[in-house]
Amino acid sequence: MKIVLSRLDRIGDLILSTPAIASVRASWPEAHITIVCSAHNAAVVERNPDVDALRILPRGTSPAAFGRSFRGACDLAIALAPCAPDFALVRATGAPVRAGYTYVRRYLARMTARFYLNRVGVSEADPELCERDASHHVRHEVDQLLSLVELAGATELRRDLVVPVGDGERAAVAHVPGGGIAFHLGERWLRDGSTLAATLETIAALRRLGFPLVVTYGEDAAAAAEEARAAGCADLVIGNLSFLEWAAVFEKSRLVVTVDTGATHVASATRRPTVVLFEHRFFHLNSQEWAPYRVPSVCLRKPEGTSPNELAALRESVVAAAASLL
Fold this sequence. Notes:
Elements: E1 2-6, H1 11-27, E2 32-37, E3 53-56, H2 63-67, E4 76-79, H3 84-93, E5 97-103, H4 107-116, E6 119-123, H5 127-132, H6 141-151, H7 167-172, E7 181-184, H8 196-207, E8 213-216, H9 222-231, E9 236-238, H10 243-251, E10 255-259, H11 262-269, E11 274-278, H12 283-289, E12 297-301, H13 308-325
Parallel strand pairs: 1-2, 1-4, 2-3, 4-5, 5-6, 7-8, 7-10, 8-9, 10-11, 11-12
Helix pairs in contact: 1-6, 1-11, 8-13
């Protein structure tokens, strides 16, 4: 049996797809499983033990054209992302079973999905429903994806996130202080209810809890990381890490503090307690669907504005949450 999986979007969502990928492997242990990713997110599954082949969609190549390379050699294709490019790729495989999912209030997408797929799941996730009714329940994305692979025929479900950190990555970050707080400085710390100055004050306040504090960052926050380094508010500010080296830093930490980004899910995969700061808008949806998964955690909401009182309250809530998990 030959199976093609497609997930072309974000790093964090691909991490959350790894239990579904493991479930496909467990359900069809003798199958040849290929996963198609983008150059952006492929690092998540480069060493994934549940896939036999990783194919990267070349920039400038249409997903449909790429999907046609599997035509006649694919028994099952699953779009792990509820996105048009993944739908197009899966349809082009011509697989007898083509599965994917979309959202309850995306009515046009629900109507057109049948053009691409012959097994379609519907997620209850919807920003407006959640904002209108804070009690509206949304399953975690991991559970939505497990329902999807069940729809595709999977019979054995796995729930662990898979990010295979190895001894090489651990050796590469051996100089990084361990047993403390890893603070991921994502771009969302710098806007919409938070500011760079307030974030630096938060990092300094976390350091006063008495544990080593390491700031990690990616290209989106390189300038802010230089400010943090100059301010001396952390024991170490470190970037330019590979994906698995970044995970190794989290693995050796006691706690991860982050905004809503892929760092949340790297922390869950390395089984670290997590404080995550979600955007004010759509908090009720995001804090359910993309919460830390199966680890002790506190989900916080950004304030609406950036007044001194709001920023001070935000800092205090982050520090209190961190202290409660240490």
